[in-house]
Specification:
Number of strands: 3
Number of domains: 1
Largest sheet: 3 strands, antiparallel
Number of helices: 1
Distance between the termini: 20 Å
Structural class: mainly beta
Oligomer: single chain
Radius of gyration: 14 Å
Shape: elongated
Order of helices and strands: EHEE
Amino acid sequence: MGKCSELKSSKIIISLPIGSKIPSHHSFFETEKEAKEYLENYMIIEEEEIIKPSGKLKGDIDKYKDLIIYGRLK
């Protein structure tokens, strides 16, 4: 396995949970802004997308989203 520094010129995709999805998610971000501010410390964000549940799910899972970030390491 290579070092992270070897990935600097490569485009990467990161998916971060926004809101608690399931009890086993003990680490998540409360807001998209919080997640982006965290990632901006480590990468140059080129594009972002929010993925939300389809609305057919029941319970608290409807509050959950994924923030998908496309970019490069700093």
